[in-house]
Amino acid sequence: MHTPAAKVSGYVVLMIVQIIFLVLFWLFVRYEKTVLPLAIDAEDAGSANEHVSKYPQFQDIQVMIFIGFGFLMTFLRKYGYSATGFTLFMAALVVQWAVLMKGFLHMEGGKISLSLESIIDADIAAAVPLISMGALLGRTTPIQLLCMSIFEVALFAANEYLALHVFSICDCGGSITVHAFGAYFGLAVALMLRPSSDQNETGKLEGASYTSDIFAMIGTTFLWVYWPSFNSVLAEGAGGERAILNTFLSLAAATVTTFVVSALVSHENKLDMVHVQNSTLAGGVAVGTVCNLLLGAHGAVLIGIIAGTVSVLGYRYLTPWMTANLRLHDTCGVHNLHGMPALISAIASAIYASMVTVGEYQSELQDIFPAMVGSNGTETKIMGGLGRNATSQAGYQLFGIAVTLLIAIGGGILTGAVLKYTNFRNLKKDEHHQDEHYWEVPAAENKEE
Amino acid sequence: MHTPAAKVSGYVVLMIVQIIFLVLFWLFVRYEKTVLPLAIDAEDAGSANEHVSKYPQFQDIQVMIFIGFGFLMTFLRKYGYSATGFTLFMAALVVQWAVLMKGFLHMEGGKISLSLESIIDADIAAAVPLISMGALLGRTTPIQLLCMSIFEVALFAANEYLALHVFSICDCGGSITVHAFGAYFGLAVALMLRPSSDQNETGKLEGASYTSDIFAMIGTTFLWVYWPSFNSVLAEGAGGERAILNTFLSLAAATVTTFVVSALVSHENKLDMVHVQNSTLAGGVAVGTVCNLLLGAHGAVLIGIIAGTVSVLGYRYLTPWMTANLRLHDTCGVHNLHGMPALISAIASAIYASMVTVGEYQSELQDIFPAMVGSNGTETKIMGGLGRNATSQAGYQLFGIAVTLLIAIGGGILTGAVLKYTNFRNLKKDEHHQDEHYWEVPAAENKEE
Amino acid sequence: MHTPAAKVSGYVVLMIVQIIFLVLFWLFVRYEKTVLPLAIDAEDAGSANEHVSKYPQFQDIQVMIFIGFGFLMTFLRKYGYSATGFTLFMAALVVQWAVLMKGFLHMEGGKISLSLESIIDADIAAAVPLISMGALLGRTTPIQLLCMSIFEVALFAANEYLALHVFSICDCGGSITVHAFGAYFGLAVALMLRPSSDQNETGKLEGASYTSDIFAMIGTTFLWVYWPSFNSVLAEGAGGERAILNTFLSLAAATVTTFVVSALVSHENKLDMVHVQNSTLAGGVAVGTVCNLLLGAHGAVLIGIIAGTVSVLGYRYLTPWMTANLRLHDTCGVHNLHGMPALISAIASAIYASMVTVGEYQSELQDIFPAMVGSNGTETKIMGGLGRNATSQAGYQLFGIAVTLLIAIGGGILTGAVLKYTNFRNLKKDEHHQDEHYWEVPAAENKEE
C-alpha cells in the first residue's frame, strides 16, 4: 500500500530545497542597514527600538499562523497530527521561501534586505498556502502540499506586487491578495483533484469528534483575538488604530450573527460547531481590505453582520451543493470563511473608494490611496500621485479582485494538474482524513482511551 | 422536549438586539480625534503610535477573555462546546454593548468617542458577565445568559461610574468593580434559579474528565500569565510597572500556597485539579484593587498567600456547604476565585489607603487617590482635590465595596427573578451540564473515542 | 502504598519555604527607583514607559514557561495533570527564589532592586529546572522536584554570574547558561536516580496517546512562536533585531530538516510526533548563544539545519542507546532538544568569536563582547575593556561551556544523591508516569470517555 521509495525520494527533494534556500540566503540576503551595528561615533539611542515597534504585532501574527491555523484544522477526528504538524512544516518552509521571493521583487544593488519587516511579510505570505490547505485538508500527501506551497507563494508574491504596486489598490488587511487568492487557488486545486463520480460521498472520518472540536476552538479563539493585529500590521499612523477598531467590531458583529443564523438554519435549531469555529472569523476577512478606511463603527458592524450571515449560509447550503454537484470538496469550508467574505471586502472597498475625498483623508491619502494624490482639484499635488479620481479608484479595486481571481484560479488549475497527472502519489479515497498513513500513531489508542 | 419555536424566537430577538446596536453605533459613535487623519499640513509623526502603546496589553486581555475564561470553563466533561462557544458569543455581544453603555456615561457633544481605550474598557466589562456565567455554568439557556449580560453590563457601568468617579475609590485592577460585582451578581442569580429541595444533589455531569481537566488548564495558564496585563492596563506611569510586579508576585505566592493547602486538606492528601485551576489565580484578584500601590514585594506575596489559602478552603468547605444548605450551586466556584479574593482586596485597599502620605506618592497621588490631593497640610493643592485624608479614603474604600455588593446582589436577584418567572425557558435538572441540548454533537462519539 | 504522613511533611516544609521567601522579600527587596513615584515637581513623561518597553517580550516568555513547557510535557498519556500542574507549581516557586538569588548577586546598599528586569530574569531562571524536569518527567515526586529546583537555581545563578561577569562570554539567548546547564544537571540527577538493572524496560505509560500528543503540540507551537522573544530579550540595540531574525530563520530551517530526517530514519518512513514536538525547536537552542551576532541569514539557516539533524538522530539512536546501556532514562529527550543543540551553540560561538573584528561590531562590541573592547590595535579603548583578542575570546567561549558542564553535572550528581539516599520518598517503578499517585483523577474516566 505504501511505497516507501516514493516517500523517501519526496523527502530527499525537500532536503535539497532547504539546501537551495541556504545557498540563496548566502548569495542574496543581507541584514538591512538598521539591523547592523552603528559606527562607534554615531549618535543613536532609540532608533533601533522604533524599528521593532511592530514586534508585538508580528508575534500575534505568528500565533495566528502556527497556532491559529494549525489548531483550527484539528477538527477532523483522526487528522490532528497532520493539522498541527503539516501547518508547522509548511509555514517553516514557506517563510523562508517568502523572504526570498518577496525580496527578489524589491532588491537593491542585487541584494535582499533582511529586517523585521521581511519576516512580517513572510508570515503573511505563509497564510496563503495554509488557506489553500484548508480546502484540501486530508486529501493530499505532505509532498503535494509542499510543492503546491512553493508554486503558490511565488505566484502570490507576483500578484500582490501587481495589485498593490501596479494597480495601486488598497488592501490593508490583505483580503484580496491573501484571502481571496489563497481560497480560490485552493479550490481550483481541489477541483482538479476531485474524486471520480462514484466516490463522492463524504467519508465518516470527514467529521469531528467531541475532543477534536474543542481543540479546533483553540485555533478559532486565537485567530479571533489576534485578527486586529493581522489587519493593522501594515497600516500607518492613525490608520493602524482604525484598522484595530474596525476589525474588532466587525468580528464581534459577525460572531453574534453567526450564532443567530446558525441556530436558525441548523437541524433542530441547534448550534453547529463548524459555523462557530469558522463563520465567527468571517468578519475579520470581510473588513480586511477596508479596515483602515473611515468606515465608522456602524460600517464595521454592518460588514460583520453581512459576513457572518453569508458565511453560515455558505456552510449550510453552498458547500453541500458544491460537494454533491461539482464533486468539489472543501474540507474546512475556506470558500465560506475566506473566499466569499473576501469578495464582500473587495466590493466594500470599491464602494468606500468611490466616496473618498482628499478633505477626509488629508495626509493619509498618500499612504492609503497613493494613486489618488493630486486628484479632486486640490492645489497640492503631493509627491506626484497619478491624480486618479474616486470613481476610477473604485474601478481599480474591482479590477484588482478580478485579476486576483483569474490568477489564483488559473494557477490553482495548473498546480492541480501537475499534482494529479505527474509523478506525485495521490491518496486513495480510503486513505483520506487520517494521520496513520504519514504518522506513527500510538498503537494502544483504541483500547486505552 | 425541545421547543424549537421558543428557541427561534429567542435567537430572533438577539438578531434584533444586534441590529439595534448597529443603529446606535451609527447615531452616536464617532472615531476619537486622534484616530482621524491629520490635516495635510500638520506636523506629527509618533503621536499616533504613542496612543496605541497599550495595544500589547489589550491583546493580552483579549486572550484572557476569549481563551482564558473560555477554556477555564471547559472542565465539565460534556460542556466544552458551550464553555468555549458561549464565551465567544457573550463576549462578542457584550463588548459592543459596553462600548455603548460606557460611552453614554462619557459623551461629548452628544457623541461617543471611539478609540483603543474604548475597546480596552469593553474587554474589561466583558469579564463581568463571564464571571457570573461561571456561577451558573451549565444551568441556563444561552438566551438567559445573554439577557443577563445585557442587564448586568449596564448595571456594572453605572456602579463603576459611582465607585470611581463619585466615591473616588482606587481600584486599579478592578477587583471591586469587576470581580466582586461579577461574582456576587452571578451568585444572586444562581440563588434565584436554585433547584427545588428534592433536586439538590450534584449531577454526575457536574464534574471533569481527564481530558476536560487538561483543556481547562489552557484557560488557567493563560489567565495566570496575562493577569499582570489586566491589572496594569489602566495604571499610569510608574504605577503600571508596580502593578505588573505586584500582580506577578502575588500570583506566584498564591500558586505555591494553593498546592500546599490543596494537598493538606484534600482526600488522601492528593492534589485537586479544581484548586489548581482556580485558586492559583486568586492572587491576581486579591491584589487587584491595590496592585499599583506601594505594597512592596512582601506585601504582594503576603496578599497572595492569604488569597490562595482562603480560596482553597472555600472550595473545600464553603462551596459544598452552600450547595447542601442554601441549594446555591456555584459551578466554577466563582465565590472562591473572584468573590472572597475581591473582598480581601477591598480590605487591603482600606488598610493601605489609611497609611497613604503625600510624601510617599508624590505626583502619583493625583492619579491614584485624586480625592486626597490637597490633604495632609501640604501647600500644593494640585488641581483642586477634595483634600480627603487617609482615614477618610480608607472609609470610602470600604463604602465602595459595600455599595458594590448591594447593587450586585440586588441586581442579581432582580435579574434572576426575571429569568425564572417570566417567559424564559428554564433548563430541567436532567438537561444541566451537557452540550447536546443546544449543540449538534458528533453522533459516533461513544463508539469512536 | 502511600505514606500520607511523609506527603504532609513535605508540603509543610514547602509552606515554610514560601514563608521564608516572604521574610526575605520583606528584609531585602525594594522597588527600583524608576518604579517609585516621581517627586511632585519633577519633569518626566515617557521615561517610565520606556522602562517597560520589554514588557511584551516578557509576556511572550511567560507563555513559553507556563504554557510552552507545561503543555510540551503533556505528551505522556496519563501524566497531563502533573505536566501542567507541576510546571505551574515549580515555576511559581522558582521565580520568587530567582528574584532573591539573582538579587543577592547584585545588591546595592544591602538591598535588592525590584523592577521588570528582575522578573524577566526570574522567568529565564525558571526555564532551567523545567528543562531538568523534562529529563526526569514521571519518575520523581513533586517534593523531589521542588527541592531540586531550589538547589539548581542557586547553582545556576552562580554559574551564570561566573560565565557572564567573570569569563565575559557572550550568551545572549542563554544556550550555555540556561539550556546546557538545565539539560546536563537534569541528566546527572536522572543518572543518580536510574532504575536497578532488572527494571530498565520502558513502561507502557512512558508514551503518548493520540489526544496527549495534540496537547503537546500546544506547547511546541507556543515555544516555537515565542522563541525569538526568549533569545532577544536581553539583547541591546540592533542586536535585538538580529536576535529575532536569526532565531526565526534557524527555527524554520530546523523544522524543515526535522520533518525530512524524521521521515528518513523512522519506521516505515512515517513521521514521529516526538521529533516534531521537540527537534523543531532545536534550532532555537542552537542559535541561542550567537543569536545577536552577525551570522547572516545563511549562518542562521545552517545552524538550524545542523541542529534539526543532530536532534532527530539523537532521539532515534542515542536516547534508546542511553536507556539500554546506561539505564539513563530521559523522558522528554532533553539531551536532544537542549543538551546537544546547546553544545552546537557553544561551538558556533567560539567559531564566530574567533572572527570578530572591531570594524564589524563597532559600538556594539561593548555590549556583546565587553572583554574585547580595546583590542585589535584600535585607538579607542572605550570604557576600559580587557583588550582580549578574538582567538582568546573564542577560547573563553569554550572554557565557559566546559565549566558550565562541570558545574551542572557535579551539581546534578550531588542533588541526585541527596534525593536518592536521604529521607525523600522515591517512586517505585509501577508508580512512574501516572498522575493518580499525586492527583485526584476522575473515577468514571475509563467508562465515560
UniProtKB/TrEMBL annotation, chains A, B, C:
GO molecular-function terms, A-Z: ammonium channel activity
InterPro entries hit by this protein: Ammonium/urea_transptr, NH4_transpt_AmtB-like_dom, RhesusRHD
Organism name: Drosophila yakuba (Fruit fly)
Biological processes per GO annotation: ammonium homeostasis
Cellular compartments annotated: Membrane
Alphabetized SUPFAM superfamilies for the sequence: Ammonium transporter (SSF111352)
Endpoints of the signal sequence: none
Membrane-topology annotation of the record: Multi-pass membrane protein
Stated family: Belongs to the ammonium transporter (TC 2.A.49) family. Rh subfamily.
Keyword Transmembrane helix: yes
Name of one Pfam family that matches: Ammonium_transp
Segments traversing the membrane: 12-29, 86-107, 145-164, 176-195, 207-227, 247-266, 301-318, 339-359, 396-419
Tagged with keyword Membrane: yes
Domain Ammonium transporter AmtB-like, first and last residues per copy: 21-433
Name the UniProt record assigns to this protein: Uncharacterized protein, isoform A
PANTHER family in UniProt: AMMONIUM TRANSPORTER, RH50, ISOFORM D
Sorted UniProt keywords: Ammonia transport, Glycoprotein, Membrane, Transmembrane, Transmembrane helix, Transport
Cellular-component GO terms for this entry: plasma membrane
